[in-house]
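To assess whether ligand presence alters the predicted conformation, the chain was also submitted together with zinc ion. Input:
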Amino acid sequence: MSRGLKVWPLLTGTIRYEKTLSTHNRGHGEFIDAPILAYLIETANGRILYDVGCDYRKVADPALRAAYFDPMRPTVEPPVMHDEQRILRYLARLGLGSTDIDVVFIGHLHFDHVGGVCDFPGCEVHVHADELAAARTSRDGSVFADELVDAGSWRLASDEYTLAPGIHAIASPGHTAGHMSLFIELQKGLPVILCGDAADLSENLAEEIAPGSCWQDNQALALDSIRKLKSLAARERAQLWPNHDMAFFQRLPTFPAWRD
Ligand SMILES: [Zn+2]
């Protein structure tokens, strides 16, 4: 049976912001240091990336960094990303290159999830159609329009689907219009659900708190997605992995170790 074989959480950078961005109306004046994560998934049918972190150039070049990230202050500080945290560097440590990735699956189109797509030219990129349509309206300040330039060649999903045997795209809108999480069956351990930004922190899941920023301010939709992911996890005995929770991330296997 060809299921997901291995999952590597990849720390592609960190970002410091007011906690209210993760927990709606909670954490005013409190700043957190959040991991910016991507996940490499190996299956018998090929390799998938869930999210690709920031565009390294926008973080490394002082002029670009100021242009893109200064407007987000003081709520969000510019991301910190070292060269060795680029996904290409992690892949190289496994003896792999960009062409060894079969699918780049983007959970949503915020800069800290899609920016790194420029490092995977020609790769098959998947995103939900509603996500792209909303991102193109320019109404979401966390979307950088230049990161959508190749979107014409992306594969647009209109519903939930199976990317590879045992790897399922799960609709979890709310934080953004077409947000998708990923359910991963593994051969050895419990299945894993990559929540993406449907749940930044364990607190979002445990206490059912909507993300701080929701598309069209629809917190109810985001809460529905949190409850949907929780009931899926309960039904399938799966682990929920929140996406910007440093303490949770630090309990996951450290690269090059993996979860299988
Ligand atoms: Zn986001």
